[in-house]
Amino acid sequence: MKITRRDFSRMVGLGTGAQWLPRIPFVAQDRRIGYCIVGLGRISMQHFMPAVKMSNKSRITAVVSGHRDKAERMAAEYGVPSGSIYNYENYDEIAKNPDIDAVYIALPNSMHADYSIRAAKARKHVLCEKPMATSVEQSRAMIQACESARRKLMIAYRCQYEPANLRAVQLIREGKLGSIQSIESAFGFPIAPNEWRLDKKLSGGGPLVDVGIYCLNACRYLTGAEPSGVKGFSSVVDQDGRFAQVEETLSWTMEFPGGALASCTCTYGSPMPGYFRVRGSRGTVIVEPAFNYDKLHLLAQFEDGQTLELAPDDPDPTQFLREADHMADCILQNKEPKTSGQEGLRDMVLISQIYRSCERTSRVPARMQSRDNLDNVRGVVVANRVHSAPDSG
Amino acid sequence: MKITRRDFSRMVGLGTGAQWLPRIPFVAQDRRIGYCIVGLGRISMQHFMPAVKMSNKSRITAVVSGHRDKAERMAAEYGVPSGSIYNYENYDEIAKNPDIDAVYIALPNSMHADYSIRAAKARKHVLCEKPMATSVEQSRAMIQACESARRKLMIAYRCQYEPANLRAVQLIREGKLGSIQSIESAFGFPIAPNEWRLDKKLSGGGPLVDVGIYCLNACRYLTGAEPSGVKGFSSVVDQDGRFAQVEETLSWTMEFPGGALASCTCTYGSPMPGYFRVRGSRGTVIVEPAFNYDKLHLLAQFEDGQTLELAPDDPDPTQFLREADHMADCILQNKEPKTSGQEGLRDMVLISQIYRSCERTSRVPARMQSRDNLDNVRGVVVANRVHSAPDSG
After folding, report:
1. What is the Cα–Cα distance from A387 to A367, expressed in whole angstroms?
2. How much is the mean pLDDT over chain A?
3. What is the ipTM, given to two decimal places?
4. Across-strand partners of A272?
5. Residues near A231 by Cβ (< 8 Å), separated by ≥ 6?
6. Residues of B designated as active site
7. From the candidates A86, A130, A268, A275, which is the catalytic residue?
């Protein structure tokens, strides 16, 4: 009996074969994982697909798009046969295509769960962009669908495969910064009107789910811990029609077991290059920009006066390449992805808790907001103490 | 009848004379305001006193210290007669010294109220370091004592007299940044054991009252508004005995009327040069460092690609000089100080609200803190929704 690489992979995935085959990593140099790209937008066409082109573990074998001309152009560029071009009507036919091992879902957030679950039913592994879905319930359904089909589910947290971010994590784990006190992180950009991200049915939320999730996820991989509490405020400053459905700006704090605190801000209202700053008792590491596609920059300063600087590569496409290859490795070696569905679910739960905290106001009594009326502060404070417990942070 | 400058000042202060004298600014080139320095520590000896030496509106005319030798050394340096050297036992005798117009209180926080109120009773104007006191009640008592004595009360918020901070405020007021979305600000340093700041009876609190107050005050002068809500977390990471009485690190968020949000962190556990970053729809202004004694640096970036940079003066002692001279101007011209007792009181009220918010936990259910146990997230979320209202932010 000759077992091909693909047969083996399937048998392991189905739970057959794994019992009687030795559990050694199966390093297959003879073939690459075939990705079906679902959604031809900027992140697919400008970042993920060019990175896969550089890979010796992954390749593009199919595309799904509502625009046939764009799909054909991409297919030609990546050597995808015309029979492997799909649209949103015939998407489920990917099940019949043996050249597709995995899908890469780069659609509006509200479509992530449906297209991931259908991919799992088609027995394809799933690499899904973040946020993984628009609700905790959808996220759980995605995890269950992939578990039932014994397919991998990985969330495309590209920064967890990016060298400067990984170096920051390494410095912390090695104790180079001493005890971690705090993290400051922010990410934002001024959004154009009519972006799908402003439609809550498509996005599931505002900047928190889109860019704030980078700060949230960074605080978790930097500390290596899960927040024990979250508190925040959300707001709309610009009453220009863009923010009828989602917040414009959101700031929140988090506490971690052991006492590290995080303070984060995200916005659709102003330019705000993503960054994080980790403060420890014996040093600081600043990655700024931290979440861009390239030209990231790390500066660490230690108590002995030493510094470490990682200057930007220009360009640095390795984060998408490493992400695609990690997924390929997980499929080929039957490993759980580092950024699994569970990892995505944790962020979804925290996002829902941050939003819930924002709904709870912690108001300074109106009398005290005026610059002219602080005469009776003692009375106000006493009143606040009595009445504020249910709605104060 | 010849009215000397000093007589006039006293008459105005006492409420006599002001009725029948024309209310024109009285610019006295013939004399300088005499300061009695109360507390000879670093900020007095290394910053305030050298700045006053450069002034043509202010001078040092007396000192109060528990260390006679240090007091005599300072007196010699600043031309203070030995009869104008006081200690903490005979402090109230400053009432009899006509060369003292005002006191500069640079004592541990818990002594601010007592020494300010006694100065007012001695009919001296008061310039008091921040935080103005260790409680809202003390702050109100200081304001009332100075009002009753018709003396000025100014809190030494030196950054409100510092050129880079003022330029940031000006850019915002002129609309150069568009609508303000958010402010990030932080300030901290690793504290040595046995500092008086770690004794809550002397300090009234941890880094929030000492360095966090810079961030808090900055958010208020940058927005020109009062926060409508505050939420925060405080913590102790280093269990090394330093933080038995006060927090080590505190992060908090604030919302302002109109929707601007602030996100701040302060710490005694790690180096954290003070800064703020103001994000507007049309530009950003970053002052970093923002709260140091010198070498401040401002960088503004506007949507048209223009930038504005204020490079550091080396050294820049003007913030203390401007602060001392503003107090002198207020005394000479009978004006309310820009950073009055009311300004200090607002911060004290907000500090007490931030501390109160920190006492209210907003916990993620313990089951969800483990990286291994997210199996029943839906159940946890539902439970949290039902039970968390009273203690969630």
Report:
1. 15
2. 87
3. 0.85
4. A188
5. A252, A253, A357, A362, A393, B231, B232, B233, B253, B357, B362, B393
6. 130, 214
7. A130
